[in-house]
UniProtKB/TrEMBL annotation, chain B:
Statement: the UniProt record of this protein carries the keyword Transferase: no
Annotated organism of origin: Heliorestis convoluta
The protein, known as: siroheme decarboxylase
Lyase as UniProt keyword: yes
Pfam families in the cross-refs: AsnC_trans_reg2, NirdL-like_HTH
GO molecular function, one term: lyase activity
Catalysed reaction equations from the record: siroheme + 2 H(+) = 12,18-didecarboxysiroheme + 2 CO2
Family affiliation: Belongs to the Ahb/Nir family.
Residue span, Siroheme decarboxylase NirL-like HTH domain: 7-53
Domain Siroheme decarboxylase AsnC-like ligand binding: 63-142
Amino acid sequence: MIMITELDKKLIRFLQDDLPITSRPFTAIAQELDITEEEVLARIEKYLEEGSMRRFGVALRHREVGFTANGMGCWDVPEERAEEVGKIMATFPDVSHCYQRPRFEGWPYSHFTMLHGQTREDCEAVAKRISEATGITNYRLLFSTAELKKTSMRYFMEEK
Amino acid sequence: MRLDELDRQILNIVQYSFPVAAEPYKALAEQVGSTEEEIMSRLKKLKEDGAIRRIGGIFDSRKLGYKSSLCAMKVPVEKLQEAEEIINAYPGVTHNYLREHEYNMWFTLISPSEEAMEATLEEMREKSGCEIRNLPAVRFFKIKVDFKLTDNK
């Protein structure tokens, strides 16, 4: 478990905001927290190293840059093959997210792969390749018809 | 939206290796053989045009002690707008999509604890009158949103 101090929480609140596009964008954060700019940068590096920050950089609106099709692949994978099949699915570069989730009544699918492409056909072609590579033939692709919300989570706000 | 070669080059770098440096835009300029001013004005434009949502840290909710889940909701067509308003009002709902299925609304929910998540879902069910399935991951295989921008995109 990662130790998160009060200073970390304050810094994380700033880092989940939008970094200004100015020559020295980290100085304002450093001043607010009464630490040095080097300390801010060192802590970002530490978060990246320990993985509490997955990445630092730009969050794109993928629809705006041409990835308009978003298909959620849902796969019925036998439990004894769950680990092996999940690992194969994760190797596909067009798969951005891959998880195993619980099944429920009327829903036989256990594995979820998020596929992004320029067209529906792109996504369908990837799904077909995944099916061939894994031997999982009971699957379906749920395409999104509307994006209702897409934001970044704001952590440690309830303690503010 | 039209992106030229330099836009694509910049976006491909800043998605994954934004320079964690005192003068990041200057460092970027050096990488692509441009000027700090040019980089800053391009990024501002890309933000204005909506290609860039935000520049900042993208955190791992689990490592920060939060719980996350994917939720599937069955919403009658006539109640879609009402349900959207109810669900989207929660700050822990970060993504919400309509999809072609009987379970037609799929959203992700991030909560500080298991208890908080259950309480939020119960409240959502009461307010909407709709069935919501909570599908927290039992195994994680991949989380990597890397949109490689090439010529034809």
